[in-house]
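Lay summary. Proteins are chains of building blocks that fold into shapes, and those shapes determine what they do. In this project we predict the shape from the chain. Here is one chain we studied, written as its sequence of building blocks.
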Amino acid sequence: MEFRFQDILKNIIPGLLIISEIFYIILIQYPCVINDKLLNSLNEIKEISLVVTLCSAFIIGYLIDSLSSWFEHFILYRYLFPKPSFRVLNNNGRYCLYNKDMIITNIISKFNNVPDLQTNRFDKKHSSLLFKYANILKEDAPETIKNKTSEFYFSYIFSRNLLFSFFTIFIMSIICDLHFRKFDEIILVHISIISILLFRWLDKSAYYTRQVFLASKLS
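And here is the predicted shape, written in a compact code that computers can read:
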């Protein structure tokens, strides 16, 4: 099994965020737990503590990656946002797909079961279908193009995982506040961060989708 640095990064950073939030809750709500004796004990085994923390972060991040994929497919795309393939194929702005007619014609010519579509407008079903076939064709693109597409993919997945991590932290903060019957102003910070990450995730998903279509043209 081959692990890329991006594979580790997209899991460890979200995992560290969750662990940091847990420590923050403990520090705020149970300050007596963090004392000099505990800190001295951790300092004596700091190498082991670091390894345990990173392993725990990777496992938590791996779960975040799986749950965020489910959350994206069944919640975000089903009820809140159109899929990026629909946005890219029907966009003339920042996500504009150049040479769109040529790209779609190339996809249709290589897959006989794709219906002959009008290239000026695509519904959600046909947009997803065209992206599926474009994703297959991109595997035959030159190696440099495939590497570039992979970079777009990891950037998109990393944005998605960060979004879900902060959403999880937000839920944890609300549960904690309800339990202790208090309001922590940091929740407002979480809402602001989630809003920024949401728009960033939308951007990254569209850029990756556009790159897949562009790569399919070179197959």
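What the prediction tells us: Residues 5-216 form one domain.
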